Structure formats: structure tokens, C-alpha cells
Amino acid sequence: MTEREKILGRIREALQTKATMPGAHEGEPSPALAGASTNQARAWLPSVGASEAEQFDLFARNAADLKADFQLLASREDLKSALTRLRDQEHWQRVASHRGEISDLACQALGLPVLLTDRGYDVQTLEQCDVGITECDALIAQTGGVLVTNRSAGGRALSVLPPHHVVLARREQLTADLPAAFALLQQKYAPDFPSMISFITGPSRTGDIERILVLGAHGPRKLTIFCV
Amino acid sequence: MNSFVSDFKTRATEKAGDLRHRQVIRTALRGYEIVRDKRKAAFQSWESARQAAAVTKWEAVNHLDTHLKALVAKLEARGTKVHWASNGEQAREIIAQILRDKQARSIIKSKAMTSEEIHLNHALEKEGFTVVESDLGEFIVQLRHEPPYHIVFPSMHLTRGEIKDLFQRELGDAPSDTPEDLTMVARRVMRQKYITADVGFTGANFAIAETGMISITENEGNARLTAALPKTMITLIGIEKVLPRFADLALFLPMLATAGAGQPMTCYNTMYSGPRQPGECDGPEEWHVVLLDNRRTELLADAEQRDALHCIRCGACLNVCPIFRNVGGHTYGTTYSGPVGSVITPHLRGLQEWKHLSKASSLCGACTEACPVKIDLHHHLLQNRRNASAAEPAFFERLAFQIFGIVANEPAFWSLAKKIGWLTQPWQRLVKGSPLDPARAWTKTRDLPPQPRESFKDWWRNRQ
To answer: Is residue A111 included in any domain, yes or no?
Structure first.
């Protein structure tokens, strides 16, 4: 008998005795089964407001709490100038990015040597880049976070290895809450999910020394989100 | 008294009197308490969310075989290699064999309590592999050669000064004692290790049966890098970590962050469903998932305490526990400390050897109140006490209660006992708390209230 069979056998035997469901009383019929309750998560999670303007406002406040820099831009021209401003401020020499409608535009505007990760890349070179510029799948108003996958954001490392992560999002990518973000992933990808899906909520951080917040533990010290 | 008990008592006495330790822990948790309450209050209904999370975990654990089979089928369909380990020894051997096959030398690890549970680092180092913990807190305690102090905050017992001295001694690099500078030292050390490591090792917070994914919650980005750069990835996960549906994470991720660290979401919550797939530009070529039982099925067989397997290892019960806060994490001598550790350790390592942990509790219920998945922790501590004494009754305890039963049931004996008490109490003061005192365990830190000369019964009779 394999270990798999042994473990599954022990589980089946253990489950012969029934355990009472939380909140139920022994001998009474069980309350309506689980799935239903999780589907209502939206009603219990932090509220997000109904209109798009409210949700953008909430996203901006949450991002600020997380010490991420969020800018809602009026046009693609504004995006270009915001990027070049940032390039000059931070003295970027080399950027890393991936192919995409907005990321192509961004790379052109910057006029710097670009490492594209789409077809494989040298890790040491990526580590030397000043910034990783990626697109994303969604912005989540409820948390102030960004949803990326390795398909939408140039692989697994691009959004986490360089010291600064710049996210390029479209206005229509604003998503109200976490249940909506999971619904979006199901709808967009199921059953062929990207092998990595990541909710990035603020720049990398740690509190392991005296519980004092330090940004840039292993991932990016800075997270900038441009939305056009 | 076995050595686990005497070690526990020695360490507990020492730590409880260590005012500096108490100050460090209190300071570390003060900020947590404020942000946790704020984040809980942001929920429209934290209580309903708890109930839903509890029911979802109940559903997962009470149909564990079905969910595990679904999880594994989905994982294998995308090229992940799944291994099953009944105990720690098997898990260590599976992992070591993968490393040997890959001719690996160096392993970069992100935080995994399951690996602490099976003492993985020690076993791998003995075989000559280099293992580096990448989570900052874990890295610090690894340099100190000690186990994590807390399941979520491994180095919360240390001050910046101690960490500076440690880095100076072990790494020869500590520019100052500010948390920023010290964190950057670790960042510099670790960067090249991610790139050169042969194997990345992770734990997992959840496994999703519906879509065949594991989910990792972290703040630093070290798990993201561990799962991105090395050619081989290994994930060790307890079998109880399954959730039925992908969308369940919409509730569990913010709840884990809120209960564990007072955050709306931790910085990175990442779901992995396979090694590098065709058309993807990076990620490990091979991914091994090791499913660990290690006596979890024994806990599963105890229907009364089965809900202890609902635990999502947020550490909230440790943070509120008056015992944990006074005796500290290392005193327990277990992988999982605090209330949940006291509940599950007797199941994972033996009831008689570890029953003393169930007695190290004021039964105040703060843990049960704090638990985001509503595990009935303080009642389980009582059940462990009951089960331990039913299996192996203590002779003197039984004798004492039998005598008490006889005395308390017979009015003549009872009033005689009171008289004796009144007569002997002044003499007891002479030996109070000393080894000559038969009630020493009680009286060395407490006073017995003086016995009244006249009982209520006598007073009532005389009054008439």
C-alpha cells in the first residue's frame, strides 16, 4: 500500500465519527451548507462604496496607507511625462519590462535600454535594473492592492526583483473588492490559470525587528501605480 | 515528572520573572493590538466573517479525503510532482532525495512552520546541504541557532541592539542598530543567494482543491523570489491546509492578515498552480509538493477537537494569551506555542508527555475569542486535562478527592475538619511556603485566608 492510500485510509476512518458544524448544536439539523456563506463574503468585508469615483478615492486612500504612490492620469501623454519625470528624479539607467500595449508605450517614452522578460532573460541583468515596469490584471479598491499574474506582468520575478515596481493600469481595471477580483480571475483564465497569481498590496515590507515597519525587505522598496 | 514538564516549569519561572523580556513582548504587541482592532472594525461584520470562515474550514476538514484527491489531481495535471509523507522522517527523506537527484548544494527557504515541525534544516545540514532562511525573522533566529519564538513573528523577543551584535558577529556587517539598516544588511546578503540557490523551498498557507493551487501569504517578497528564481521548487504542506474553493481566499486572505498582523492584506498573497508552463518566461522547471500527515489524522479522529485542524496559523491566540505573554514562546519547547500549540501538541507528540501545557492556562478564553476560525481553544485545553487524567489518573490526586468526597458528604467529619483547620492554622504559618509545608505548591505564592473560629452554622444556632 502506498503512503497516499495509507493517509487517505486514515482520513476516511477518522471521518467515520461526525463532528458538529460550528454554530450548530448536537442533534439539530445542520445550518445551510458552507459554500453559500462564503459567497456572501462581500457583505462582511470592508465596504467599498457604490460609484467608480468613490472606489478610486478609496483605492487612493488605501494605497497611501500602504505607502504606495498612486497617480490617476488623464491621458497617455500624461503617463509619458509622469514616467520621464520619475526617470530623471531617480536617475534610472536601465529598465526591465515586458511586451504589452501600455508597457511598450512606456518603454518608448523612457528612451532607456530595456530588458524584456517575455522570452527569457538573464537573472543577474534583471537584478541590476533600476525598475521593473509591468501591466496588471486589476486594481482592488478594497485593499489598495494590485493583482498581477505571470502572464499579465512579464513573469514571476519582474514585479519583485528590481528595487522599484511601476504598475501601469487602465481605468477600467479598477475592481471593487476581493470577491470581484476572484470572479475576474475565474472568468478571464479558468481552467487554464497562469502558474502564478499574486495580490501585491503595497511595497515589500517587514516588521521583524521590534515590529517597526521597514520597506523593501526583499522585494521592491517602492511601488508606483499609474492609472490611465 | 518527565523532563518536558520540569524544563517547562524551570523556563516558565525564569521568564515570568524576567521584567526585560516582558517589556520587550509588551512593546512588540502594543502596536499590533491597535492596528488589529482598527482592521477588524473596518469589516462590515467581523463576527459573520468568522462564522463563515469556521464553517468553510469545517467543510474542508470534514471532507478532507475528497478535497485532497481533487487538489492532487489538479496539481499533477499541470506537471507538479506530489509526494505523500505519513511522518516527519518520510518527509525529510523525500526532500533529501529530491536534493540528491538534482545534485543540489544550496537551498533558499521561505518561512514554513511545517519544516520546523519535522526539523528539516537540521537533517539537511547534516547531509551537507546549505540551507538559508530568507524571511528576516527566521534568518535572525537561524543565525542564533534557535527555533522561532512565535509562529508569525519569529524574532519578536530580540531588541535591535541584540540583532546588531548578532549581525556584526556572524556577518561582519552592521552599520547601525536602526531597523532600516539591519534589514538592508539581510537584503544584501540574500540577493545573491536567491540567484545562486539550486532549490527554493516554501511552506503554504492554503491549498485550493477546486483549482489545484497553493497560496502563500507573506510581506517581504522572499517567498515570491524563492518561487521564481531557483530551478527546482519544493513545497511542504500539512494535509489540513485545504480550502474547497478558489473564491474562499477572498475571505481568508484578509482575515489571516487582520488576525495575524493587523493588516488589510499582507503585502504578497500568491497562488501557484504549477511549475513553469509552456510559453511562460520564468519559474522553476520542477515543482514538488510534499503533503504531510505527521499525526494530523490522529487529531482528525478526535471529533471533539477536530476543529483544531481549522487553524490557519495566524498567531492571534498567542498574542492575546496571558500565559504566552509572560512565559514567552521558547518556554513551551514545541513547534507551535501558545494556546493552539498547547491544544495540538499533545495530539502530535503524545498526551501524557505534553499534558502539562493544558494546565498552563488561566482558561480565560481570550484565545477562543481571538481565533478567526472560532476554534474552541480553551475548552479543548479542559478536554486534554480530562483525557489525560482519564487515561492515567494521578494516584494522589484521586486519593485526595476521594477523601474530600467523604469529608464533605458527612456533616460530622466536615465540622471536625474545620475545627482541626482552625487549631492548626497558626502553626502552619511557621512553615508556610517551606519544604515542610504540605500545601507548599499553593502557599509559597499565596496566603490561606484565616479560618474563622465560629462557622456560619454555629453562629446561626447561637443566634437563635
So the answer is: yes
* CATH superfamily label, B46-294: NagB/RpiA/CoA transferase-like (3.40.50.10420)
Mutate which: A11, A118, A126, A186, vs B, most B CBs within 10 A:
A11
Cell numbers 474562499 correspond to: B248
Query: pLDDT, tens digit, for every residue of B332-343?
Result: 999 999 999 999
**Cβ B279 vs Cβ B223: under 8 Å:** no
Q: Check CB contact of A47 with chain B, cutoff 8 Å.
A: yes
3 state DSSP class of A209:
coil
Q: What secondary structure letter does DSSP report for B78?
A: T
Residue A34 — very low, low, confident or very high, per pLDDT cuts 50/70/90?
very low
CATH 3.40.50.10420 residue ranges in chain B? 46-294
A7, B245: Cβ pair inside 8 Å? no
Cβ pair B244:A34 closer than 8 A: yes
> Residue range B135-150: average pLDDT?
96
Burial class (CB within 10 angstroms; exposed 0-12, middle 13-18, buried 19+) of B412: exposed
In a domain, A42, yes or no: no
Peptide bond into B450 cis (omega under 30): no
Q: Among A10-24, B224-238, B305-319, where is mean pLDDT lowest?
A: A10-24
Angular region, B394: left φ>0, alpha ψ -120 to 50, beta rest: beta
Asked whether residue A79 is assigned to any structural domain, the reply reads yes
- Among A34, A197, A200, whose Cβ lies nearest the Cβ of B55? A34
The mean per-residue pLDDT over the stretch B287-306 comes to 97
Domain count, chain A: 1
pLDDT digits (tens, 9 = 90+) for B272-289: 999 999 999 999 999 999
**Mean pLDDT across chain A:** 94
What is the residue range of A110's domain? 49-227
Q: Summarize pLDDT for A37-69 with one digit per residue, the tens.
A: 556 889 999 999 999 999 999 999 999 999 999
Measured between alpha carbons, how far is A51 from A47 in angstroms, rounded to an integer?
12
Identify the residue among B218, B297, B311 best suited for mutation to test binding to A, counting A beta carbons within 10 A and taking the highest. Answer: B297
The nearest CA of chain B is from the CA of A121 a distance in Å of 8
Interface of A with B in 70-129 (CB under 8 A): 117-121, 123-124, 127
- Looking up residue A174, the CATH number of its domain turns out to be 3.40.50.10420
This complex has an ipTM of 0.96
Residue with C-alpha cell 509526494? B83
Residue A145 lies in a domain: yes
pLDDT of B432 above 90: no
CB-nearest to B221 from A46, A191, A204 is A204
Instruction: Tell me the three cell numbers of residue B349.
Output: 507528540
Which pLDDT score, from 0 to 100, does residue A26 have?
Answer: 65
Which H helix or E strand runs over B206? strand B206-208
